[in-house]
Amino acid sequence: MSKVTYEWQYDEEGKTALEEVRARRGFTLPVHEVMASVDPEILRAYNSLAGNLIFGPEPRHLDLKTRFLVLVGITTAVKGDREGVEWATRNAMKYGATEQEVLEAILLSGLPGGMPTVEAATIAFAEMLQGKGWVENSEATEADA
């Protein structure tokens, strides 16, 4: 549920690619819309890459909980989109992370990203826990791969 209001122009193939992303993630970001506008195949390739990085062939060295905690920290540190922080947080918790583990991942991100990134992610996390998140009921599944 991005807060960006500009409407990118895309053809039917672009609309279909966006629907695929929405079905997989539960939401789209402005960057997804730009990819659909420029070339829907770029969006599909990106979506496939993201799915494989998270849910690729097992066994992996990091379990899903840890992968999502890493994403929480990285997305926070690089001042990524709020939707991404929420999505990774929801999924970290779905795969067993506690609120304290999520908060630790957020706090650790302050070293490379600075404390304003921690503050923004903490606010997003608190609002999500109160049912005021921007990404509601958008959970990744192994079918996303």
Q: What's the overall geometry?
A: globular
Low-confidence stretches: 141-145
Order of helices and strands: HHHHHHHH
- The radius of gyration over CA amounts to 15 Å
Helix-strand category: mainly alpha
Distance between the termini: 22 Å
Beta-sheet strand percentage? under 5%
* Percent range of helical residues: 55-70%
Q: What's the total count of β strands? A: 0
Q: Please, what is the average pLDDT?
A: 87
Question: Helical segment tally?
Answer: 8
General description of the model:
This protein has 145 residues and is mainly alpha-helical. It contains eight helices and no strands. The protein has helices spanning 12-25, 30-38, 40-55, 64-77, 82-94, 99-108, 110-113, 115-129. The longest helix is centred in the N-terminal third of the chain and has 16 residues, at 40-55. The model is unreliable at 141-145 (pLDDT under 50).
Features of this protein?
single chain, 145 residues, disordered C terminus, mainly alpha, 0% strand
List the helices and strands and how they pair.
Layout: H1 12-25, H2 30-38, H3 40-55, H4 64-77, H5 82-94, H6 99-108, H7 110-113, H8 115-129
In short:
This protein has 145 residues and is mainly alpha-helical. It has helices at 12-25, 30-38, 40-55, 64-77, 82-94, 99-108, 110-113, 115-129. The chain starts with 11 loop residues before the first helix and ends in a 16-residue tail after the last helix.
